[in-house]
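REVIEWER CHECKLIST
Item 1: Sequence provided? yes
Item 2: Single chain? yes
Item 3: Sequence as submitted:
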Amino acid sequence: MERPCVRVPREAGEETRQALAAADLVDEDHEIVVDEGLLYLPVTDPDAVDDEYDVIYRDVPAHDRQQTPADVLGFAPSYERLGDVAILDADDPERAGRVAEAILDSDLPVRAVLNRASKVKGDLRVRDWTVLATDEDADGEGRSPTETVHREYGFEYHLDLATVYFSPRLATERHRVTAQVEAGEHAVDMFAGVGPFAIPMAARGATVVGVDLNPAAVEYLRENARRNAVAESVTAIEGDVRDVAADYEGWADRLVMNLPHSADEFLDAAVTLAGEDCVLHYYDIQHEDDPFGPGERAIREAADHAGYDVDVLTRHVVRSYAPHELNVCLDVRLSR
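Item 4: Structure as written out by the authors:
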C-alpha cells in the first residue's frame, strides 16, 4: 500500500527522522525503506511536513506490531534509552519497579533498567544509580548494568554511567554544533567527556584536543576515538583545562564549553586557547527572564581583556532545564 514518505539522502536519515519525531509525524506502523542511496521515512500527515522536505508516495511494508512498555502497563511510562540501557527518574520505588519489569517484558532491546539515585555531583560530573532490573538472557558482552554502547548520528560511544556523565537528550544539539566544523580546523573541547563533540568534529576533518578532569572519561574518549576511526586526529588530555591552556595558546579555531553551571570560570582559559579568529560555543543555564545576558557579558569582559572583538552569531535555547530556567548556547566569534 502506498504511504506518504519523506525522501532524503541516506546520510541525512537520522537527523530527518529526529526532526519528524519531534513534530510527531513519524508513521510508526510502517517501515523505513532504503533504495539506491535514498531513505524513505513514512509520515502520518504529509500536509504537516515542513516544505524543506520532499514528500512522495510509495509502497512501504507494514511493521510487525511489537509489544511496548505501554502495552504491558496500560499507560505510557516516561524513560530514556541509552544504548541497551533504559533510564528512569522516578521517586516511587514500587512504580519504578513495575515500569522496569514492563520495559524488560516488552520487545525493546533493553538489557538493564536504571533509576537516577542522585543529581550530578562533584568535579567529575557523575551521579549514583539504582539498578532496577536486568535481563539475564541478554548478551551484555560481560558489561556491568551501567555500561553500554550508545549510537548517535552514525557514531558509537562506549561508556559507563557509573563513572562518566552522558546525556542522550543533547544529541540534536551536539549535531547542530559539530555540523558547522570544516576540515582543517583546530578544535578544543574543554570538557570533553567520552567524546560526543570531539569525535564528530574529528570525523569532519578537524584536529581536536579533548580535555577532561575525569580519568574514566578520558580513557573512554581514547577508546571511542579508536572505535570511530579518528584516533589520529584526537588528542585526549586528563586534567583541568585551565592548566592545559598555556600549552595550546592561540591554537584553536573552535572551542566547545559545555559546562553550563560554571563555564564562566573558564573563560580566561578560553581566550588563551583562542586563535586570531575563533568560534566559541558557550553553554549556560540562566533564568528565562534573561537567559543570554549573563553569559554574553562574561564573554565580552574576558574577550576585552584579551584584545578580542566579540560577534554573537547565535543565541540558541537548547532546552528547558528547570521551572523558569533555560539551558542555552551562545555561538560567538572572537576576532583579534
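Item 5: Key structural point noted by reviewer: The chain is about 25% helix and 35% strand.
Item 6: Recommendation: ____
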